[in-house]
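### Sample
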Amino acid sequence: MAKVSVVMPVYNSEKYLKESIESILNQSYSDLEFIIINDGSTDNSFKIIKEYAKLDKRINVISRENKGIVYSLNEAIRLAKGEYIARMDADDISAPKRIEKQISFLKSHRDIDILGTQVKVVGNISNDIKEKNENKLNIEFDIYDDNREKILNYWYCLAHPSVMFRKDILRELKGYNDFKSEDLDLWLRAIESGFKIYKLKEELIYFRMHEESKTRVDNQNYEGLKDGIKIKLIDVFKREFKKDFKYIVWGASNGGKITKEVLDEFFEKSQCIAFVDKFKTGEFEKIRILHPKDINHIKFDYVFIATEPGKEEAMSSLKSMGLKCIKDFLSTV
């Protein structure tokens, strides 16, 4: 029986699929099964998968109509025979020793349940965008901490296709829930259940960014962002959404608008009393805009940070006021 089950959902990925499959088949650690779910592709993806399955018996192919990534992942988890489950995406590339290094670490650190890695961003995008996304994806984790605060405040700090799990914890958590941001939901449920997440300080995944990627598709109408905010609210407020609630949104732009929209859905009795923006004045969404230095003069229950460029400055400013992250404020972007 294989020690590791690599699971990879595939949907219309013919352009990058060969590189992705070969990066798993050519791993230095070979005791693995490779479960590939063809999720109703309409391009040549299934043909490519079948060609590789003829060459390597470690590949287990499932092909059916499209049911989405969450269904596919849970299906693969049910089929997995390995002690460990490694995620893989059909447009990314695993470094040759990725599986070997993750297995070695998990064997020597029995207290770690979910193990990611740092990534190298690739794709037909500018170097500035690559660097920006690498900075977000490669935030280091603390092995002595549950890393909940980082996962809540830094959106994509744990690259989903880089992760290896102990299979038992995935089954205890009953797999993935049906969210656009299914990985964020899983990380937070795992932490709440007492499982530990860590990330190797080595780039073991070539993380491809392109126009057809799941992240870009999910965010065409900001559905991924909205889902992520909802997941964070559920985790932080434990579904206690009926109380009167006065809040501030830091960021008078699109992120602030979306944040308020989701908050008003969750907190029916809530009231946004101000937006905060050091570059704007007047009103936004018919609500007054305050300069950061004026926050001390109003009463509020919570602050939601909805600006990516100003996130660090906002968090630093709020901490200097004696407010505590998660207890008093949270980043929604």
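The radius of gyration is 21 Å. This sample (Glycosyltransferase) is used throughout the tutorial notebook.
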